[in-house]
Amino acid sequence: MRPLPALAALAAAALLLSGCASAVRGTAVAGEVPPSTAPRTTTSAQASTSAPGASGAGVSCDYERSGTAAKPVDLPPATSTDTPAKVVLALGGGEVIVELSPDTPCTGRSFAHLARSGYYDGTPCHRLTTSAGLQVLQCGDPSGTGSGGPGYVIPDENPDSASAYVPGVVAMANAGPHTGGSQFFIIYGTCDIPPDYAVIGKTDAAGLAVVTRIAAGGVDSPSGDGPPKTPVTIESAKAS
């Protein structure tokens, strides 16, 4: 792990983003590993993508238990004929509708499962970055520390190119290969990162405006990387 100078206390939990601009090069979105431990690595959490449908039907996902859950939740179903098309986040006084990507069925199924299970309800968005090379809001850790996860890891479904990371995209945070769990980030501006983070889906102009408004409130850190100055909570998350 390469430490983030402004967040030394979270260095061991930082998500690797080696392609970021110099102001944040080395790290960015915090991952889901306890402080002072190495990133979890598993080799069996792989997706079997035999004849997948647009909704994820036909895809078998190997979700593997790992670590302690920040909030109790069951494993997502390995297979499903009921893959939601969207997740609606009531976030910071506004609504962010995430249209799930058919290209990442295992990631989307887990995201929707956590929403349906109430895992995200009442949880904070613990990190906001406002640098020229990284402009994201990160949420999904009930502990609010940046090191919490659901107690399982999901298969990696990373994009082919970094061009996938544009404003409005919602992507999965991680701490290296095979460590994605519940933390995610919403891109509201520039996001200069390598293609190492599965794209969950994308929000529309209205959802992007909600996140942009949150970002305009500033960061509670002189580095421009830390908790939002005005606390932000996922009031509820609903999958449909």
Automatic annotation (TrEMBL):
> Which residues constitute the signal peptide according to the record?
1-23
Pfam families linked: Pro_isomerase
Ranges of Low complexity composition bias in the record: 34-58, 217-227
Outline the segment boundaries, as ranges, of region: Disordered.
31-60, 217-240
Q: Does the keyword Transmembrane helix apply?
A: no
Q: Does Signal count among this protein's keywords? A: yes
SUPFAM superfamilies membership? Cyclophilin-like (SSF50891)
Question: What does the record give under GO molecular function?
Answer: peptidyl-prolyl cis-trans isomerase activity
Domain named PPIase cyclophilin-type is located at 94-239
PROSITE patterns in the record: CSA_PPIASE_2, PROKAR_LIPOPROTEIN
| Record keywords | Signal
Instruction: Summarize the protein's role.
Output: PPIases accelerate the folding of proteins. It catalyzes the cis-trans isomerization of proline imidic peptide bonds in oligopeptides.
Protein name per the record: PPIase cyclophilin-type domain-containing protein
Q: Which organism is it from?
A: Actinokineospora bangkokensis
